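dumping this here before i forget
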Amino acid sequence: MAARILVGLVLAYAGWTKLVEPAANFEAVLLKYGVFNPGWIPSIARILPWMEWLLGSFLIVGYAPRLAAGGAGLLFLGFLATLASSRIFLEAGGSDCGCFGKSGIHLSLRQIFLVDLAGFAVSL
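structure:
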């Protein structure tokens, strides 16, 4: 239960910090990764924070925990794939990931890779 709540807190916090900021901030972060088609970035920047916040909230309160954990696992897997294929991760692993918005916690790409890896493992 503690692990479910911890993963939920990470996702809910990540989603919330991006939801309270202009979507353009997250769009700039996504563009920096160089992984996504630039035409998809506005949609991703508007949908992903809601997915993070909702799945995290579901995990925290225990609503449909298996479904929420499965969704969280898929999100973490997507985050890991994005980081691993990102040119900024390969070139400069120390830069800020932008995962928690501009006003939230600042982690390097390597640090967030470990957080995502742990979140994926716990979600399984």
